Amino acid sequence: MKKAEFTIPAGIDVNLDMEIKHILSDKRILRMLKRNPGLEKHIENNPFVFKQWLQSSKDCSECPGLWACSNSPKGYVDSIELNGNYVSTVLKECRYKTSENSELSHRSRYLICDLSEKELRYDINNIDISGEESEYIDVYMLVKDWIRHQPKKGLYLYGSFGVGKTYLAACITNRLARQGQKVAFANIPQFFANARNSIAADFNNPDARDYLDTQINRLKRADVAVLDDIGAENTTNWVRDDILLPVLEYRCSNEKRTLFTSNLDFEQLETKLAYSQNGQKDEIKAGRIMSRIKALAIEVEVNGPDRR
Ligand code: ADP
Ligand code: MG
After folding, report:
1. Ligand 2 centre from 168 Cα, in Å?
2. Are 264 and 272 in contact (CB under 8 A)?
3. Domains of the chain from N-terminus onward
4. Residue 66: how many other CB atoms lie within 10 Å
5. Do 169 and 183 form a contact (C-beta atoms < 8 A)?
6. What is the pLDDT of residues 88-142, one digit of tens each?
7. Residue 49 near ligand 1, beta carbon < 6 Å
8. Which helix (H) or strand (E) holds 226?
9. Cα separation of 97 and 66, whole Å?
10. Of ligand 1's atoms, which has the minimum distance to the CA of residue 169?
């Protein structure tokens, strides 16, 4: 078979040399060379990979944050990857995306997570107490102490709308999730509404029952659970007696740390629980639930302005 013969056009070496010089003088390449001087030989061997990279990727060195990113997908950059003598470009997370992902990596420890991304970032150490009233500082110290010692008895944080109860409770689950514990943060009105909806849609649908059973089991079994905004839900006998009571009973008898937030103090919650939506009154059942809540948590008032 006849060998293929290539004729290198005159001047190509000169052009290639110029191309390499041009690449080596680029400020992004100079920064890379500073970190990795051995890169020069790869540029000499694969100038077109680098040329293509310089043309197609943006210089992100001055980027102030993910919010300013216009890359698609956001937070991803084309990076040069070296593998032996082989050079290629791959799509990689930028430094902001990596830091965002690691800030939210504890999300995988949430068995139930009714927290937004913003709330998943709440951290007790980021609370600035310098301008706070002493009453808030006392609660803040109590929460901080609770996180440090994690006593068996949880906290029942109550107070008016917007004072920061959910914020403090999320600081607790976020911290414990980062420590590796399985946590649950359930917004109770939403949890009960979902429960009712899943069953109301089709009472005989095994998937709906499975979904509900799974959610209830998660709330029962999480190492630490927050029942957020308890008392704000529409109470029906069913959610009170067939969901709330068994969850609390299980957590009580298994000594599982449980926290609550509410707009109501213990006494007001008991009254609320005694009345179901259809106006029926059942003080005994409400009392049964309250005795579990009191066994699980101490009542702590959160005072202050509405921060919304
Ligand atoms: P509550 O659960 O008591 O109704 P939230 O915890 O939802 O109130 O807080 C209301 C708003 O105030 C939220 O937007 C939250 O981010 C903000 N907030 C609460 N506590 C603090 C705090 N210590 N520092 C800064 N912002 C806070
Ligand atoms: Mg709240």
Report:
1. 9
2. yes
3. 10-98 (no CATH), 106-301 (3.40.50.300)
4. 15
5. no
6. 999 999 999 988 888 899 999 999 999 999 999 999 999 999 999 999 999 999 9
7. no
8. strand 224-228
9. 7
10. 6
